[in-house]
Amino acid sequence: MKKTSMSYILTFAGIILAIGIVVGVAVPLIVSQTLNGTMFGVIFFLYFVIVAMLIYPLFTNISKSIAKKTMNKLENMEFEAQNTFFAGSAILAMDLDRGKLAYVSYFNPKELQIADVAKVERIKSSYVKGPLGGATCVYFEFYYENKRYRFSTFTSNKAYMIQSQEVQTAISKADMYGEMLENAVKKRR
Amino acid sequence: MNLIEIIFSVVIGACLVIIIGGRIVLQIVTKYYEKNPDAASPKCKKCKIRMTAGEGTLYLIPAMFDMQHEESAEYYLNNTKRIYDESQIPKGQRACRMFVFRCPQCDEKVVSVVDFLQNSENGMICGGDIYPYEKFRDFLSS
């Protein structure tokens, strides 16, 4: 399954760049009716400072909405999504009766990829330890055709204690999805 | 060092002491209750002594993860389903243990319900309370 589409990333970057150029040209023209190179440079630079601060939520929100529309294509396919999980960078839907997984990555949101559960291996749920014995990420993962796919049930840039409600709930969710996949794999094989 | 630097150092130091000290205290308290489980037992209201617990019985609760639910005796009586081992708890589903505590002096009984979420780590306690035994008498004996 393909996690990243370079053409999508480059198109996204190209659109951001194009908007920057248009803003850099339009603002001096509106303000001073002349195309001032210095003003263009300053506005272009400020635009990219703002974009740099907002790029992650901007990219995620836009990609997520495209990915959701791509996932809706499942309605016209032989796929009954008994469970759909929205991770930080992908959507995973499971049809455990038919032994299929549907996967859409936010870095490749236009491609709906269907995987056979029989090829899933090394299923695991765990967490990433953070400072002072906390946890920064809880996840479940599996390998498909020797590539690792990790889905976070909890991420934070703060130090949450492992005993905290948020982390314990996320560990339970990761355990649940891991067990679902294991049962589906056993059923298929 | 000027006053602001001193205050800043004291605040940072205090935060570190609270964080590290808090973790040490939590570990000490947890180990204490593990070694002395009776220390967490309720006290008899009449005799003011610690009650002793019987073996807990396990029940499934129709709630998932950290879902909130009504914490009343009626909720537990009407919605729980008896199971016999922790391996029967589906992943992500809540369960509870019911302990009957008895006063060794006056034979007064209460029921303690501990609502918990089990997982591959230690799990967590989500709620529960202590209820009059009379409400649970028929339920526990069935």
Summarize the structure.
The complex is a heterodimer of chains A (189) and B (142). With 189 residues, chain A is an alpha+beta fold. Chain A contains three helices and seven strands; from the N terminus they run ααβββββββα.
Commentary on this structure:
Chain A has 189 residues and is of the alpha+beta class. Helices cover 46% and strands 32% of the residues of chain A. Chain A has three helices and seven strands. Chain A has helices at 6-32, 37-71, 165-188, and strands at 83-86, 90-95, 100-105, 108-116, 120-129, 134-144, 147-161. In chain A, the strands form two sheets. A four-stranded antiparallel sheet of chain A has the order 1-2-3-4. The longest helix of chain A has 35 residues, at 37-71. The two termini of chain A are 20 Å apart. The mean pLDDT of chain A is 87. Chain B folds into two domains: 3-35; 41-141, no CATH class. Helices cover 35% and strands 29% of the residues of chain B. Chain B has helices at residues 3-35, 73-79, 133-141, and strands spanning 52-53, 57-64, 81-83, 93-102, 109-117, 124-132. In chain B, strands 1, 2, 3, 4, 5 and 6 form a six-stranded antiparallel sheet that branches. The longest helix of chain B has 33 residues, at 3-35. Chain B starts with a helix and ends with a helix.
Q: List the quaternary state of the chains.
A: heterodimer
- Integer-rounded radius of gyration of chain B: 21 Å
Total number of domains of chain B: 2
Number of strands of chain B: 6
Structural class of chain B: alpha+beta
